Amino acid sequence: MAQVHPLAPFAGQFFGGAQVLDVAASNLFALVDALDKLGPGFGEDAVLRAAFAVNGMMQTDWSAPLAPDAQVMVFPRVAGG
Amino acid sequence: MNAPQDKASFKPAYDVVGTRPVRPDGVEKVTGKAIYGTDHVAAGMLHGAILRSPHPHARIRSIDTRKAEALPGVKAVVTGADFPSLASLEVSLGEGSGNIAAISRNCMAHEKVLYDGHAVAAVAATSAVIAEEAAALIEVEYEVLPHVLTIDEALAPGAPVLHEDMFTKGLPEKPAEPSNAALCFTVGRGEPDAAIAAAHTVVSGRYSALAVHQGYIEPHACVASYNADGQVQVWASSQGAFMIRTLCASILGISQADIRVTPLEIGGGFGGKTKVYLEPVAIVLSRKSGRPVRLAMSRADVFRASGPAPGVVADITVGADADGTITGVVMEFKMLSGANPGNDTHSGAMSALAHYNVANCRVTGWDVLCNTAATAAYRAPGAPQTIFPVECCIDEIAQKLGLDPIDIRLKNAARPGDVGIMGMPAGEIGYAECLEAAKAHPHYSAPLGPNQGRGIAGGTWGNYGGPSTATVNLGEDGSVLVTTGSPDIGGSRAAMAMMAAETLEIAYEQVRVTIADTSSIGFSMLTGGSRTTFATGKAVILACEEIIATLRARAAVMWSIDVSQTEWRGGAVHCLSGDKAGTSLTMGQIAAKAGFSGGPIAAEVALNAQGFLPGFGVHICDTEVDPETGHVSVTRYTVVQDVGTAIHPDYVEGQMQGGAAQGIGWALNEGYVYDKAGRMDNPGFLDYRMPVCSDLPMIDTVMVEKPNPAHPFGVKGVGEVPIVPPLGAVANAVSRAIGLRVHDLPLTPDRVYAAMQGKS
Amino acid sequence: MGKMMISATINGDAQQFLCDPAATLLDALRDELGLTGSKEGCGSGDCGACTVVLDGQMVCSCLVLAAEAEGRKIATIEGVAEGSELHPVQRKFLEKGALQCGFCTPGFIVASKALLDHNPDPSEHEVRYWLAGNLCRCTGYDKIVRAVLDAAAELRQETTTQRVSA
Ligand code: FES
Ligand code: FES
Prior knowledge:
The structure holds three protein chains of three kinds. Chain A is an alpha+beta fold. Chain A has a single domain, classed as Ubiquitin-like (UB roll) (Roll), CATH 3.10.20. Chain A is built from three helices and five strands; from the N terminus they run βαβααβββ. By secondary structure, chain B is α+β, with helices and mostly antiparallel strands. Among the domains of chain B are: about 180 residues, 2-Layer Sandwich (Aldehyde Oxidoreductase, domain 4); about 180 residues, Aldehyde Oxidoreductase, domain 4. Chain B contains 21 helices and 30 strands. In chain B, helix 8 packs across helix 9, helix 13 packs antiparallel against helix 14 and helix 16 runs parallel beside helix 17. Chain B is globular, with a radius of gyration of 27 Å. Chain C contains five helices and five strands. A five-stranded mixed β-sheet of chain C has the order 2-1-5-3-4, sandwiched between helices. The radius of gyration of chain C is 16 Å and the shape is globular. Chain C starts with a strand and ends with a helix. Classes of the chains: A alpha+beta, B alpha+beta, C alpha+beta. At the B-C interface, helix 2 and helix 19 of B face helix 2, helix 3, helix 4 and helix 5 of C.
């Protein structure tokens, strides 16, 4: 199970303020699907606004394999100049 | 000018990386041949003009274009009615996302104007003079609405609301009423209130900075040509031709394959050219007139209608132990984002404390709208505004505790492995090394004169990677052509050529770089987020590695040996076995026979670059304050930055110096000023005062090279970090020079003088 | 009112062009003569991107009427290099990395050459004040000032060598 830590605004908006969610997923696509079931609407929002860090590294390739014990942070994506 | 000497020991020896060759596009740019936004001419081209709103907030009752259309020479007049009325639709734009309806309405107002300078109609005519004349003949009937210009006005009960459908996001409950607060966002951990209550020393204050413009010298400009079959060409100066393609296609409902965007040379962007303003309008004018149309902004248009960086008001409280350990921080800031929701609140909140270990903190950001131009990214968007109050407070704590300002930062500095406020352990970051290098720099211990003060500030920015495409083709003579889709805004062609030459083990001059149009190369995200040398560079390197593999395979066939019996060295394939052992084939020799082997030698790599690391900087600033006038001059300035590996040191130093100069301008001179009617008071370089050559000293640079393990040559983004520390560095220097703190930027003479008078 | 016909010497060549009475010299150079090396950053005399030399005087071409060029000599960025031989100021800008986006560069080069033409040995202070009318937003001016000082040194060297050999 990957441990997912959704930060604001996602935790409040989709997951009832949950700090940690355990999700079985082989990559971030699967993880987003699973999270969308827990918090309907998250999937669509994630495409537009979410950034993911896996084990401390930003990961923008959602197809990269996810280790079973991965720590995944979800936070808002930011744009540079 | 190079920092830690011991780095040489583990730094791999490069032949090309780290040298300072002349950039490949240099001669064109020093001889006036390079073609920028307004230099491109299309055959039969018309000239456009845009009519802009004189009101900061008004409903458009009607637009009568008949007189304009009747003027001889006028070929097309368009208004919001000529644009598809889009539902609110967000599209993903790589790093961020954008609301297409809002972007479209910002290019051309539909039912409401939201700021002074908002486009309401456009004309294309046979000359610029006629176009201007026609625009002035357009009659717009406005219902003028009350407007808001400041955070207090925007959030006051009963304030006029810009967007009736905007409800604050990020609150526990969706608010009952729409408001001008687009977003509330909080990050934090621990028990900050308790930590501050228990702290040995506490400082607090309200800090502010004004909105400032990116100030690129080249105004926005483009030419668009719409053909009868629906295919469109656009020539534009921007940070991303693909960004223009995506946005124009979405706004106008055109297939991306039908829009070919050719990037012209770009005369500065700094984040401000990551948006479209003119291109969709030029396409619509061209569709209506059947002719290519040029649109260009005047300098006043640039100020009034293209994106400044948001101003900020921040309330901050910081608590520390007697030894200087920061125990708790509470900060609430409000970004003044202008007419549309901004992008700086998330990044501002996440950056504010990213360079320190703070066990207990809460940072709350608000995105507040008002009737000024919609803001755009500006170099490390959001970070200068939120790191400025943090750096000022740390300085005050150091003064209260009698600590050295660098030592207190070292004590609290984020180091590799430390878990940051976002819950992520830091990678190979170099903030502590920067602080050490600053401390060791002669500037730090140089004596100060009367009325002088020295300020220190640190800062950070997250950088980015993301999608890029690069192709590498060999000429029949073995010369190398690199093609990317990343506009070169400050010397990146040179960096690409250098990384290719290093990979291929050939001379820099053997490689030439082209930046292709959107139909000639695969997608690349825009040049922004300090990503180009990192991400596009990685694609170039991998493509060169594919070229090497191809050349070895071709040579192996020519020698009838297994490819494992070949070696790539010095730009040639060497034969290790068989009767040709000891001989070699150069790139030219193999390329010349490409027609007899597998055909042209080419490689294309499209990737999504991972492993980017944040950058860190420490600035040392000396200021002298004139006691008679309050005028502040910067007398000495040093920029220390963790740059990963500097591919071309001149252009890395140039980023550091340019970013510092912009930050100094933000701290001392620059700011948007509005009159009571909501019109910008200083939309020109005379009154919007950017630093000029005689305002600044030499800007010394120290590159701390701590390589990024995720990049073949160790590259980290360098372009954005250097604008972050100057606000705090200048403010701290002034506060030490005059013995009291001025909390509001810019530190204009009247403000500083008034503060000094108040003291005495 | 119709267009005016103007005769002027531009980068050493006798030229004629048509212009509106209200057109600026910058417009005429860019639109009528195709000399787009001079840039428009502001149109109000505040950025120096349009700098040219008019009868030996450095001017902002956006503040000069095209009609005023009648019978006069104009030197633009396009005439700074001698054929394919770069002027030392141009070469030093390249060698020192004194340009990033390059948009301000033509104006800086024309202004710097004008400085060195009448002051072969300027101090850093003099360079900074001479160039104070040219805005650069990319570089922070450091490398520009160094390039101009270096070019001055090289030009002095050349003059001395010429004198010695002559
Ligand atoms: S365009 Fe002439 S000074 Fe700016
Ligand atoms: S190099 Fe860009 S403005 Fe000077």
